[in-house]
Amino acid sequence: MTINQTALKGRFKLLLLLMVLLVFSACSTRKNTNVNTSGNRAAVVMAHLKSKPLYRFINDWTGVRYRLGGLDKRGIDCSGFAFLLQKNIYGNELPRRSSDQAAVIRSKSVGQLKEGDLIFFSFGGRTVDHVGVYLSDNFFVHASTTRGVVVDDLSLPAYQRAMVKAGSIKN
User: Fold this and answer.
1) Residue 10's pLDDT band (boundaries 50, 70, 90)?
2) How many structural domains does the chain have?
3) Annotated catalytic residue: which of 78, 82, 113, 151?
4) Is 130 a catalytic residue?
5) 78 catalytic, yes or no?
6) Is residue 25 assigned to a domain?
7) Which tens digit of pLDDT belongs to each residue from 95-141?
8) Can 48 be counted among the known catalytic residues?
9) Rounded Cα–Cα distance for residues 100 and 51 (Å)
10) Which domain CATH number covers 72?
11) Helix (H), strand (E), coil (C) string for 53-86
């Protein structure tokens, strides 16, 4: 083999190696292009809220960690979040505990819910132990024990199984 043939063979191997690396790197950096993810839908719901103060309130509290009995940015629980949201956005007075909040609600079906209505859950038995605030299109905001204040999809099976009551505050 001549020097030119050896150099050509080396260049061919290098070119082949670069092509293989390019293919693998392109595959590994491919992003998920599914536009119907729950996160994308939640962002659309947030962008279309009727109440801009509600949007700002949720945006300001999103990510605040869960803390049982908490009522500030150092940590908040679900009933405290609903309590503050109703007071600051709608001027409604609610009891502090979720089970007591459920007692002052006029029940509605999910299809009748409006922005700001409350949704109650029972994850630990028959009594209400969690509350969230309905937004629209089956999304609600709440203080999750594991993720803090988040917007979630009410149609998820875990929420469907645990939902016990929903409605608006009795006036």
Assistant:
1) low
2) 1
3) 78
4) yes
5) yes
6) no
7) 999 999 999 999 999 999 999 999 999 998 879 999 999 999 999 99
8) no
9) 26
10) 3.90.1720.10
11) HHHHHHHHHCCCCECCCCEECCEECHHHHHHHHH
For residue 4, give Cα distances in angstroms to 7, 9, 11, 13.
Answer: 5, 8, 10, 14
Comparing 22 with 67, the larger pLDDT belongs to 67
What confidence tens digit (pLDDT) does each residue in 54-69 have?
999 999 999 999 999 9
Q: Does 5 reside within a domain?
A: no
Mean pLDDT of 20-32: 42
Dist. CA 61–CA 74, nearest whole Å: 11
The catalytic residue among 130, 132, 134, 154 is 130
Kindly name the residue from 129, 142, 150, 154 that is annotated as catalytic: 142
Query: What's the one-letter identity of residue 20?
Result: V
What's this model's pTM, rounded to 2 decimal places?
A: 0.78
